């Protein structure tokens, strides 16, 4: 419940509806800087997981690597969520995308590269990324929302 409903709703409200909107309305930030800078707050809000990783017995270097990867992933997701929110004017898209990402987790790139049909799997990754990029502007067209 926390990962699939409460966190997506509360975090998207806090970081998109409050932080991104405040920066956008402040007049001191361009839309591009709001999209690229405000998600760093979202990424930083997940740094507390470092303590959990250390408590679970992960060494310092391992915990730092895991936190670094999580910061990069949450910041990249924040770029998408902030862009989607500002472009559509609605919080529904980022909330559902956040919930979906929490359900799916990170892609298993190591497993894909070790798979016996890695060329098919990697090709599917490339096609999926290309389709995502190609559909991003049409799907977030403000006239549709």
Structure description:
The protein is mainly alpha-helical. The chain has two domains: 6-106, no CATH class; 107-144, no CATH class. It is 80% helix and 0% strand. The protein is globular. The model has no long low-confidence stretch (mean pLDDT 93).
What is the residue-averaged pLDDT?
A: 93
Main sheet summary: none
Indicate the low-confidence ranges by residue numbers: none
**How many helical stretches?**
7
Strand content bin: under 5%
Number of domains: 2
Helix content: over 70%
* Strands, total number: 0
- Rg calc: 17 Å
Q: Termini separation (Å)?
A: 27 Å
Classify the secondary structure makeup into a structural class. mainly alpha
Helix/strand order, N-terminal first: HHHHHHH
Please give a handful of descriptors for the protein shown.
mainly alpha; 7 helices; Rce1; Rce1/LyrA-like_dom; 145 residues
Summarize the structure.
The chain is an all-alpha fold. The chain has two domains: 6-106, no CATH class; 107-144, no CATH class.
């Amino acid at each position: 419940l926390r990962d699939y409903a409460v966190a997506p709703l509360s975090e998207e409200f806090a970081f998109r509806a409050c932080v991104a909107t405040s920066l956008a309305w402040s007049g001191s930030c361009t839309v591009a800087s709001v999209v690229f800078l405000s998600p760093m707050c979202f990424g930083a809000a997940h740094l507390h997981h470092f303590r959990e990783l250390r408590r679970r017995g992960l060494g310092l270097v391992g915990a730092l690597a895991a936190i670094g990867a999580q910061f990069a992933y949450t910041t990249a997701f924040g770029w998408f969520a902030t862009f989607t929110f500002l472009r559509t004017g609605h919080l529904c898209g980022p909330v559902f995308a956040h919930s979906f990402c929490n359900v799916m987790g990170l892609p298993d790139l190591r497993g894909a590269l070790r798979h016996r049909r890695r060329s098919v799997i990697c090709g599917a990754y490339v096609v999926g990324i290309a389709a995502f990029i190609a559909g991003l502007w049409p799907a977030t067209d403000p006239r549709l929302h």
